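Replying to the earlier thread about multi-chain prediction with a worked example.

Input:
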Amino acid sequence: MDTPVNKKKLSLKEKYSYLTRDLAWEPSYQKKEDLFPYATYEGIKVHDWSKWEDPFRLTMDAYWKYQAEKERKFYAIIDAFAQNNGHLKLTDARYLSALKIFLQAISPGEYAAHKGFARTGREFPGVGPQVACQMQAIDEIRHAQTQIHAMSNYNKFYNGFHGFADQRDRIWYTSVPRSFFDDAMASGPFEFMIAIGFSFEYVLTNLLFVPFMSGAAYNGDMSTVTFGFSAQSDEARHMTLGLECIKFMLEQDPDNVPIVQKWIDKWFWRGFRVLGLVSTMMDYMLPKRVMSWREAWDIYGEENGNALFNDLARYGIRPPKGWGDAAEAVDHMSHQFMLALYQWNFGTAFHSWIPSDNDMDWLSKKYPNTFDKYYRPRWEHIKKLEANGTPFKNYGLAKNCQTCQLPCVFTEPGDPTTLCHRETEYKGEHYHFCSDHCRDIFQEEPEKYVQAWLPMPQLFQEPINGDLEAWMKWVSLVDGEDNGDYQGSHDQTSFEKWREMATSN
Amino acid sequence: MTVVSRKEYIGVPRDRVENFNGKQLIYVSWDQHLLFAASFLLCLPPETCFRDMVEQNLVALIEADPDAALVEWDKVVWLKGNEAWKPDWEASLADNGINHKAHLRFQTPGLNTVCG
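Result:
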């Protein structure tokens, strides 16, 4: 039976009004503060929530329609990829290490962002941000799902993909994004929006997604390219929401400016540390490389960031405090971090390898002031140890930073030959940091960060008590399959064998 | 303010010494020797003799560096908590004032084969 249609269709403006602004009401028998108890304790003053502008004016009915269409296309391509043995069309199976890191470290972050936005949407008193956060919460869970589905095909053939859900909470290198999102979710709704909506989505996301998706395209990974495209139109909306939120806070009250500035300083630096993982993918893990981490930083960090902070200067906002140190670190971080991943690769659920001569020449070209001077000699020595039959493993484990939770692998600003050691004492306990900025973040809120779950010290506590084998089991790492050098791994031998079967008789 | 919260909030540190079954954590690093990506983490009883910590733990960890065999331990310059400091080689960690999560650095001027 057809539903009788009596009225003409609503105009977009009417629809927007009915489906967003009109959903709000003034409480009559409860106090507003009781309904929204988290709206004020961070110190952000809002005088008029109706001043919140929705740049996209998207309503839920249109949202479902767009997203459903994208899902249909996405799953059609993923099916075709699986049926056509898409996994054999990669440039090389070394590429899979980048994907494994993405699945273990980034996809669970999408899920965490989903939870965060669902909560933030409930905590904001204004209906504009409530609806926008609700849509972003659904986007984020969709991103987590599409990423997991896209990569599940690789899990049928290769090691290292199976344990990502356990590894998110337990393995050492994923502590970095996990603690980033835990920190954001343990903050109030306004700080959450600066952390995820602004610093991550607006300032840093291009550095993650654009080079990563181009990397996938360059290396024949159509399934990742597809989830990239499917997420991209959402990202544009997320970036706009982040920017709108920061401008709203800054315009509502001048007292908000110093609070927002402090959050920008903090969350830029935390995000920059998370991106350390991406720098290694770009400079070391893609068999066919797109651009160096330095080049990506110049385009997506430096240029876009400077334009943004010039724009925000009229509110009294300056670039993040760590901006200068970050720009200097860009020439070092991928090398410092990759050397770390390699020497601890008995404890990684992906493979790493000593860069070939060809790779090293590429790196010296891209990093003319740093690679040959500081990093090539270390790789050459590691190569020599390997050739002598005593491959380099560092069983010393590492000092973690109390704030970003990375091993403290970074060097002093202005001196790439000295590790940066920062420490402080709080209530009689020592705390260690990788940088001035991570120490400053701790000192702002020590009661929060003393609780950090640091993966290396954890290894010597219950339930592991220093037993490496028990640790591997606990983090779902299969020794001899998921970890170690790429040379001689199952991934390498399987890929080469299957590819030969597919391309010869 | 020690944490932004709606009411008083006291955090519980995860890495208190009680959680390490009678042992403690010590961090040790070798300045200018960045073949090792970060400071080493050792977990030892506080009564461990300083000499034993170096000879039984540290020496094996730094073996991969070509300078390792050339280290003259009696000439090594030590720092504790980034300050100049002299260990008593025959005393325990506790008697040396090396408490839980203390950070020791050592320097070997003149030795610098891999990292310039």
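Chain B has one helix and five strands.

Feel free to reuse this layout for your own posts.
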